[in-house]
Design a protein that fits this description.
heterodimer; A: alpha+beta; eight-stranded antiparallel barrel; B: twelve-stranded antiparallel beta sheet; 2 helices; 9% helix; disordered N terminus
Chain lengths: 173, 250
């Protein structure tokens, strides 16, 4: 530490005396080169971090019936968990054991759209549950390049057409 | 001469065919929404009639009933509890959970008594059944009292845009042919009372049931039915419910 201070002092002293100006510009050039190298290194680090960026989704939405369009039930609500935002779900249940859904979560930094299929258990129950998987179909804003998928869980409330949907997955973006 | 013989053979074989194979079997179907308002809750009724114009009508083994996709029978709040078929057969529909009741109906069957065909009126009760395969199952409990006292359970499966009803062989008297279903009227919804638990208390409510779709295709809501008869014939019929006037929710 002391040695380093001495070095600094020596360098300042030489500049003050007007001696070693050429050495100082050389030092500046070296510093500029170092800064450039560091910037490149930093850029490389950022892009590596970008590639490794993951959105660890573990979200739940309690959704209310809004309207229906043909066979599709449209529900909306808020997502709570790791990605906060507004959720819109287009839920299709035709009587087949497999249900399908398209959903979009819109947050402050962007939106994520996905589609999923799931198998409904106990259809003759007031609130049949379902379990399946989802695949991201697109995104916007910070999540423009989001992809991947995960697991989808949910409950359909037959009396109110409401839904509780839970999505779990690690999504690179 | 050989040509005349051939014509005679063809005519003779034609004459020997059963009535239904002549194409004499006709089927008619009807469908209705009560009330008829777009987007509003309703009671859906299906009816059909099979006329075999034969003294020995072939028993009905199944019916496939197609309805508009956007009728959303699957997502309705009808049948939120299942009635076990064994229990239904043994004890009747009154012992089934109230939340399994989905509707009712009636039927006319023909029973051969010697050389006579006798009609019997049958009461139908529609209930939700257990789902072994993920599809919604409907049980149709049929009870006739006179001249033959019998009850039988028909099973139906709700598929995408259609209901597949299976009619089991309905025996009448020993040695007599099976009973033939000639008319059936089914109603989904209506005045049903269900129960739910709210804050630990059992509360009664009326299920909304099925709603008339909010949009009507040109030509109305189309329904169709195909009937499977034991002799292999598959007569079919179709109908349409005319587009109702838009419902004023105000």
């Amino acid at each position: 530490m002391k040695h380093h201070r001495r070095g600094e002092l020596w360098w300042r002293k030489r500049v003050r005396n007007g001696v070693g100006r050429s050495q100082s510009s050389h030092a500046r050039r070296v510093r500029a080169a170092c800064v450039a190298l560091m910037s490149v290194a930093a850029l490389c680090t950022v892009s590596a971090a970008d590639a490794a960026r993951l959105l660890n989704v573990r979200d739940e939405g309690r959704l209310r019936y809004v309207k229906s369009s043909g066979e599709v039930i449209i529900d909306e609500g808020h997502a709570t968990g790791s990605f906060l935002g507004r959720v819109t779900v287009r839920f299709l249940y035709t009587g087949e054991p497999t249900v399908s859904a398209r959903f979009t979560i819109s947050g402050s930094a962007g939106s994520i759209s996905a589609r999923g299929t799931a198998r409904l258990s106990s259809p003759t129950s007031p609130s049949p549950s379902f379990h399946g998987s989802f695949t991201v179909t697109g995104g916007s804003g910070r999540y423009a390049h989001i992809h991947g998928g995960g697991e989808l869980y949910g409950v359909y409330y037959r009396r109110s057409y409401a839904l509780t949907v839970q999505a779990i997955g690690k999504l690179p973006y | 001469m050989p040509r005349a013989r051939l014509i005679a053979v063809v005519l003779a074989s034609w004459a020997c065919l059963p009535g239904s194979a002549h194409g004499a079997t006709t089927a008619k179907m009807s469908a209705a929404f009560t009330p008829e308002h777009l987007g509003a809750p309703t009671v859906v009724s299906f009816g059909f009639q099979i006329d075999q114009s034969s003294f020995d009508p072939a028993p009905l083994t199944g019916v496939e009933l197609a309805f508009p996709h956007n009728l959303r029978l699957a997502t309705s709040d009808l049948g939120v509890s299942a009635c076990p078929p064994d229990q239904l057969e043994a004890l009747g529909p009154k012992r089934c959970p109230p939340n399994s009741h989905m509707g009712n109906g009636s039927a006319i069957v023909e029973i051969a008594f010697g050389t006579e065909l006798v009609e019997e009126a049958v009461q139908l009760t529609l209930l939700a059944g257990p789902s072994p395969n993920g599809y919604l199952h409907i049980l149709v409990y049929a009870k006739g009292t006179y001249p033959v006292e019998a009850d039988v359970v028909l099973t139906a499966e709700l598929l995408h845009g259609r209901i597949a009803i299976t009619v089991p062989p309905i025996l009448s008297l020993p040695g007599a042919p099976s009973v033939a279903v000639t008319e059936m009227q089914l109603t989904l919804g209506g005045h049903l009372t269900y129960y739910e638990t709210v804050k630990g208390r059992r509360v009664a409510y009326h299920p909304v049931g099925v709603a008339v779709p909010s949009t009507c295709p040109s030509g109305g809501f189309r329904f169709a039915a195909t009937f499977m008869l034991l002799d292999g014939e598959r007569p079919s019929s179709h109908t349409a419910v005319a587009c109702p006037q838009p419902h004023d929710r105000a």
